Amino acid sequence: EIKGFLFDLDGVIADTAKFHGQAWRQVADKVGTPWTDELAEGLKGISRMDSLQLILEASGQGDVYSDTEKAALAAEKNRNYQTLIATLTQADILPGMKAFITEAKTAGYQLAIASASKNAPLILEHLGLTDYFVGIVDPATLAKGKPDPEIFVRAAEILALPPAQTIGLEDSTSGIEAINAAGATSLGIGEPTVLSAANLNFNSTADVTLEKIAALMGE
Ligand code: B16
Ligand code: MG
Predict the structure, then answer these.
(1) pTM of the complete model
(2) Is 8 a catalytic residue?
(3) Would you call 3 helix, strand, or coil by DSSP?
(4) Whose CA is closest to atom 8 on ligand 1?
(5) Are the beta carbons of 172 and 196 closer than 8 angstroms?
(6) What is the ipTM of this complex?
(7) How many C-beta atoms lie closer than 10 Å to residue 124's C-beta?
(8) What is the pLDDT of residues 54-84, one digit of tens each?
(9) N or C: which end of the chain has fewer CB within 10 A?
(10) Member of which family (predicted)?
(11) CB neighbour burial string for 60-99, b if at least 16 within 10 angstroms, e if fewer
(12) How far, in Å, CA of 82 to CA of 8, rounded?
């Protein structure tokens, strides 16, 4: 029986993926990596340093920059990003998500955040959603990021639930892999062809309701 939901943030609760994309694109231009849809998709759900590494490797520069230079590029991206997210308000919650979060909480489900973003607490504050969640996994304390299951295992722990009693909501392929490996039920939001590993799939956040989830799970 499902008793909790583990939410990714970027791309599930708020459309911050577009801000990550814009912020990284400035760095990609600087290092001379051509920006493609495929690259942008691959950055979703991946940690800040892993994202930078993918951008450098995309133009064969994985070993060109020193660790100090890489840290400076990542810091530059985060400054770009924080400028963009400073403007976030409740109006930036993705369609249907405020309703779903409210519905799930009212129905007695426990909610936690499993976002790779170190900016998640700040974003939730801007969106006015902090109080709906029992807790937020601190990604700085993780040994491995998505697709490793650790972040979803830890989110279930925050709820004191076995992962099997939870559903993880994700927009990224790495996140779906992480949910599946954690032993939770994966709910993919986005193109079913991209998120083909997901147990359940919705094209849009607007489609996510308890009733539709129950129908997909055959209950
Ligand atoms: P930050 P999620 C992830 O958030 C983003 O999808 C990913 O693009 C980003 O690099 C990562 O957070 C780290 O974010 O630089 O703010 O620490 O999708 O796991 O909620
Ligand atoms: Mg995401």
Answers:
(1) 0.90
(2) yes
(3) coil
(4) 44
(5) no
(6) 0.93
(7) 22
(8) 999 999 999 999 999 999 999 999 999 999 9
(9) N
(10) Belongs to the HAD-like hydrolase superfamily. CbbY/CbbZ/Gph/YieH family.
(11) eeeeebeeeeeeebbeebeebbeeebeebeeebbbebbbe
(12) 19
